[in-house]
Each structure stands twice: as C-alpha cells, then as structure tokens.
Amino acid sequence: MSSTYKDIQRITGYSLGTISKYFNGGSLRAKTKKDIEAAVARLDYRVNGFARGLKSRKSMTIGLLIPEINGIFATTILRLIVQFFRQRGYSCLICDCDSDTNIEVESLDFLLDKMVDGIITIPTDTSGKHLERAHTRNIPVVLVDRKVDDFDADTVVIDNYSAGKTAAEYLRDFGHVNVAVISGTQDVYTMKQRCSGFVDAFSQLRKSTFTKKNNVRVMETNLTVESGYIAAKDLLTNDNNITAIFCANYELTLGTIMAMKELGIKYPAGTSLFGFDNIEIVRTLSPSITLMAQPMELLAQSASNLLLERLEHGSIFSPKTIMLDTTLIEGNSVSNLFDKANQMKDGLAR
Amino acid sequence: MSSTYKDIQRITGYSLGTISKYFNGGSLRAKTKKDIEAAVARLDYRVNGFARGLKSRKSMTIGLLIPEINGIFATTILRLIVQFFRQRGYSCLICDCDSDTNIEVESLDFLLDKMVDGIITIPTDTSGKHLERAHTRNIPVVLVDRKVDDFDADTVVIDNYSAGKTAAEYLRDFGHVNVAVISGTQDVYTMKQRCSGFVDAFSQLRKSTFTKKNNVRVMETNLTVESGYIAAKDLLTNDNNITAIFCANYELTLGTIMAMKELGIKYPAGTSLFGFDNIEIVRTLSPSITLMAQPMELLAQSASNLLLERLEHGSIFSPKTIMLDTTLIEGNSVSNLFDKANQMKDGLAR
DNA sequence: CTGTTAGCGCCTTCAT
DNA sequence: ATGAAGGCGCTAACAG
Fold it and tell me: Where in chain B does DSSP place strands (E)?
C-alpha cells in the first residue's frame, strides 16, 4: 500500500490543502517546502494518478495507436513523438492492433478508458468511424500517414501521389518502359496513392509516346520484408522484361534488395531499383539506392504540434490537414537506358 | 463531459449500488440488466477508469518495459505477450526507454503510477535496482531475456552461454580456427553470455589442439542492422584471415549478410556465417543461414504464465528462474574446411 | 435482488 | 501562507 497525503500530514503536521499546493505549484514558505520534500523522500511518496485524474480530468498521457509494432516507419515516428511529449511532461501510452480493425476499436476504447488527453494514430480501418468515440468525449485525435474516409480530424500525410509520380517520371526519363511496382494492398491509403501516382504517370506516357502498350505490373503483398522478398523473387524469376522495380515502402525495398542479391541480379546493371524511405540499412548500402524519402522528423513534429495545440487550446473544430513533400534522393540504383543504348551504338561498354 | 452512474440512475431509477453490480458481475434481475444496458447504450456510457482504479486498486493492466521499440526480438516477444493477456482480459501498457537507464526508471514510475497489476520487462540497467520500487508496492515483476544483478524476481532467459559454446563448437568441428564475433557491448547480459560461451570454447581448443594462438576477434557495436553492417564491412575488408563470423543477434546477422553481399563475399564459399535468431527475412534466405534459434513463443509464454501465476496467487517470494534451450538450425552458410582441404588434395574444387 | 452509506486520494474554493 | 470542508465517480459492506 502506498502512502498518501495523510501520511505526509502525519509527519509534517501540514494540512492536506498545503500539501496539495506543494504538488501543484502554490506559493509556500521555504521551510514548508523543505519539510514536505523530506517527508516525500522518506515515504517514497508518489501522487496517485487516479485520484488526481478524478478531479482534474487530465492524465497528462497521450495515446498512440498504430497498426504494427514491427513496422519500422511507424516505430520511428513513434519514438520521435514519445520524445516530443516526454519533454513536455506528457507520457505516452502505446497500442498496436496487429492491423486488425477489431482490435483497433478495442485498443481505442482502452486508451479512452485510460483517460488519455489526446490520441495520435496511424489508422488501420479506412473508414475511421471508430475515432468518433474519441471526439464524443472531446478527446482530440491526430491522424498520421493515412487519411480516413468518414472522420474529420487534424491530419498529417505526405504527398504520396506525387511521390509515386516522381518515381515514375524518374524511371521514364531514364528510358524505363517495362516496370513493376511492389506494393502493399490497395486498401492501405499510402499504397493506393503511391501506386496511383506511379501508374498514372506511366499511363499518360503510353498515350503520348509509345505505340506498344507498356506494362506496369503491380504486385500487392503484405508490408513486410519477407513478403517483399518473396514478391521480388517471384517477379524477377518469372518476368524477364522488367527493367526497373519501384518498391512502395521500406520493408518492401529491403526485401527486394535481398531477393536481387540472392538471385545474383545486380542493380543497376541487371535490374534498376527505386526504393522508398531513407532509413536504416538502406541508407548505407552501396551502390546507394535511389528513393523517395519521407521527412520523418517533420511528420512526427507536425503531428505532435497539432495535438499539443489542441490540448492547450481545446476545440476540436476546423481540423487542419498538413501535406508534406517527399524528397527524391538520387543514388546509383537506376541505370540510364538511353546512355546504355548510346554506348552500344558507339560500341562501348555493355 | 462523459456520463456517470448518476445519469444511468436518472434514466433507469436504479440505485448506484445496483448499477455498480451491473458492471462488476453481481446477480441482477433480467429486466434490471436490460434497463441498465439500454441506458448505457443511449448514453454511450463508459466506466471512469480513474474512479474505478481509485477504489479497486486494480487496473487489469500489465506494464511492458523494453529497451527499444525497434528491436525485432523484443517486439516479437511483446506481441505474443500482449496477445496472451488480451485473451485473459488484461490490457498491456507498452513503454520503451531507448536503452537509457534514466528513462527506464521514469518509465517504471509511469507504469506504477498507472497502477499496473504486474510488469514484464527486458531490463536495460544491469543492476535492476530500480525494480525494487515495484516490489515495494507489491507489484510482481517478471524479467525476460536478461538477468539482473541486484534484484530478485521471476526470470526467463535462454541458455546464452551454451548457445555461444554450441556455435563455437560447430565452427570448430568444421575446421574454423580464425573466427570473429560481431556482438553488442558486453554490458548487455545476453551479449556477454553468448560471447563468453563462444570465446571459452575456443580457448579450450587452443590449450588442447593448436600451437599457434588462435584468434577470436570480438567486435562490439550497437544492436542495430546498420551497426552490424558497418562492423562486418570493417572486419571483412581489413582482416583476411577470418574464415567464419558469429553474429550474436538478429540485427547483427542481418547487417553482416548485407555487408557480405555488398562486398561480393559469398557464404559459405568466401566466409562462413553463423547467425542468431530464426526470424523474419533471415529465415527465408538462400543459401540458408546456420544459426542458433531462440524459442520465442516459449519465452513469451513462460514469462506470461509466471506473471499470471503471481497475479492470481499473490506473493512475490521465492522467485523462479526458467532457462530455456536454444536450437541449432543447420543451414548452408558454414563451409567445412576439412572437406575443402580434402577436395584440394583430391584435385577437385577450389 | 436492490438501496444506503461511507470512503478511495486528491483538488479546490473559502476562510483564517 | 495555511487550514477546513466538500466532492470528483465509483466500489463494497451492510441493510432491507
């Protein structure tokens, strides 16, 4: 059983009101502070968060709800957010839902039951209706990475469509026509956007330049290294026309690299590779990978600031959406087919 | 502002006590239940966790405290534990401390403040003294993966020393003498144990068999893919005598594989590779990796059961330690130098 | 089976 | 600057 104000009162003689002030920043005599401080130390006293929350209705806790605790993107963002709020006196409560929408709802309720002051989530469910439960209780919600159809709240996403388009244009400018995408399933907001951007860019190309129908083979799989690896291996062993692969997220990029290396296919010489996310190991490989980089810090920071704003100024109305740009990081994983063609004409290298 | 028992009372006419029973499993008339149920639905009522916790002093919540939310081993275990407790009506509260002992203490206090009923932790601090704070409050603690010097509690670890030894003996039996270890720093319990087991096995070897001092070069670095990659690259470019590398955890294994592939060093032909942890992508690579596999499910299950036992039967005394065995998974990443020697004699392969 | 009552530990006026 | 008193929403023990 832990100690309470009463214990401190017994030791110091001060009243409960005075002791409360000590913990909540009232003005006290130096000696009073000292006395209470000593008692606190002696008792190893900690304020009871439940009792405090019961009155103040604030828990100084933020709920974080993400699809997978194993996803590098999510956990990277998560860490930055946790850090942000720790520095401001908030703790974070982390839930993952295994990409299961039922568990997602459960977890949301769990967070609400724990009286979190606000929620930042990468939603799994595409409708997002479950999040209404938070707004009903006047708990602000910030969406990160994925938009949602039926729920309006502050949102931070990157311009996924443009990212896909940029990748496509880059490959096109290097002469690639037969390309493939390794992507997650299209019910994931980011995947759909990135694929659409990519495929649309190539479709326009078809209309204008090419007579033969150009292929954009889109392979959909799970968002894991292993899935990407399997998909890439499948693709590379069965489709010999592909000159370039666009991987729509980090795990898929890594899996594809593993598959290529295993098959002895070098990039860019054998097949060109265009990746996503400038994090972890991919950042240090050589040849370096050409990829679209997301501004992770900015994402985390924007989301955190949006929520903090709501926490400090109340009101859930007129939500903002922030769309951040991705950056093309040029490495050496995409070959220039035009150069190649020229070189062959000139009788140079292969 | 959310609704309370009083609101339900106003609608149904039942007293607070009866309503409380509805939420805590007392026996009520069918009609009474129906009435309350209807009111609850209408109000979208949820029990106030603060008020409940204040009385009952139970939260039906387990605290999980780990070093890094990015570590695959930890998060794999974590998911299994969360699943276990979810099925039994408990929720889990996840904290990571960035491998920072100060944050670890803070996070522990956070968990205690949230009135968790029990804690499962992979400790960062090697002393573990901070965990006393939990026992003082009569909160049971279960340690997973790492032992701790100054705190006695239920513990589940694998036999890391034997794992290292087994790896060493395997390499030795295949004729490897100049070997290297890529490891985390020795202040991490598992790393120290695995390295000791490995190095000891080779030291004995030296005493008995070899005249020349054999090398076990131990490289210590951070427990990330990137660190393993850098260490392996360094090792492989600067030390030509090494015939085999033992990687002491999953991330280091993966990093080493990336480095080898990048340098064009094939395993087992170029340098042999002995890994750790049979998870994720490493499981599917070919040539397959020879490695020591940890029984992840059993680890998670054992830890969960130990804690559940404490939760249901009280008493923190006479803690148990469970030590689980690792399994040698034989792949094709270690070459048999004896065979090779024979083959050369016979004028066969390279 | 249902109602009454007395706190759980803390915060917040309102006095002093 | 300090003390006294009431109540936050819920639980539990005891009546009825």
Answer: 61-66, 91-96, 118-121, 141-144, 154-158, 179-184, 216-221, 244-247, 272-276, 290-293, 321-324, 327-329
